[in-house]
Amino acid sequence: MAAAAAKKLGILVALLALLVGPSAGLLGIGISIGSGTDCTVFVGWPLPVILRSLICGLLGQPYTPPIWRDEPTGAGLSVGYYNNPRNTDAYCPGAETAVRNAVEKAIYQQGRGIGAGLIRLFFHDAFVRGCDASVLLRTTALAGTNTEMEGPPNKDSLRGFDVIDAAKEATKAACGNRVSCADILAFAARDASDILSGGNIRYPVPAGRYDGRESFAKETGQLPGPDSSLQELQMMFAAQGLSTADMVTLSGAHSIGQARCLFFTGRLAAMDSDYARRLNTACNGTGSPNNRVDQDPVSATVLDNQYYKNIDKFVLFGSDAVLVSSPETKQQVDVNKANLTSRWESDFAAAMVKMGNIGVKTALVPSETEIREVCWRVNA
After folding, report:
1. Model-level pTM?
2. Which positions does UniProt annotate for Ca(2+) 2 binding (predicted)?
C-alpha cells in the first residue's frame, strides 16, 4: 500500500512540474498529510486552490483552506501598554527601550540585513495564527518539532530569532516576565523599520498581546510566496483581513534584505537583460540555489520606495512584478513611486500597525495563551 501511494505521489509531482512551470523544479514540491482532517500542499507556495484540492483529493485527504479573518481592529491593545501603572501585572516602563537597544545592537553587530529579517519575521508570524509569536516556537505539545519554523516558506530562511531572545532577556532584567514575545516581535519590527528607513518610518505600536502555545508547519501554506499571482496575493491578504492597498504597501518591504537564488532564477528572462546576467553570475546559473542577492539593486540597505521604481524590470519575484498587472495596483505603484509628501512611508507605518493587529490574543486563557519565559518554547 505504501509503495502504491509513493508511486501515485511521484506521478503527481511530475504532473505538477509541468502544470506550474519552471519554478516548481527550483522551489521543490512538498506535501504534508495530516491525520485524516487536512492536507497541505506547497509548490513554491502558494499553489492555486483548484490544484491543491485536486492533489489532496487524489491522495484521499480533504484540502483545508486558509482561515479567513475579519479586518483586524486591535481590540484589547493599547499604545503605551507597558507604561501604564494601572496595568499592574504588565507594568514595565523600560520595555520598549530594552527592545530598541537590542535591535540597535544587532544591526550594529550583524549589519542592516538583520533588521530586514526582523520585519520579515513579524510578517511571517502575523499570517499564521495571528500575532502570537507562534513563529518563534521550536516545539509544542501537538506539533512536536514540526512547528512553523519547519514550514517550507520558513525553513532555513527566517532570521532574527537571536535578537528576539536578547530583547526578551533584556525586558526580564528590567521588570521580570511581563512582556510577551508577541509584543517584543512587534516592537522589534517597528524599530527595525525606523532604523532602516533613516527615521522616515516611525509609528507607535499598540501592545497587550499574549503568546500562543501552538505552532504547526502545515499552516505556513497561508503565507504568500515568490511565484504568487496577483489573484493569489489578494486572496491571501484578504484572508487576513488586509486590503489590496495594504498588500501593495507592505510589498515595499522588499526594498531591503536579500533573497535566495532558488526563488527567482526561473524568471530571469523577464528582467532587464544586464541585471539578469549579473544575477545569473551570482547564482551560478541554477547551480547555487542558496546563494543570496540583494532584493533592491539600487539602495540595498535602505527601507524606501525604490522598490516601486524597480518593479518593471528590476524586482526578483514574480509576486512583485504582478503588482503592475492590473490598473488598481499599478496606480498605487505609480503613486508610491512618486512618493509625494512621503505617502508610502506613512502608509507603510499604518499597514504595519494593522498587520500587527491580526488575530491578537489579549486575554490569559489556561493552556492557550501565556507570557513565555523563553520565546522559543512554551512554559512548563
Report:
1. 0.86
2. 296, 304
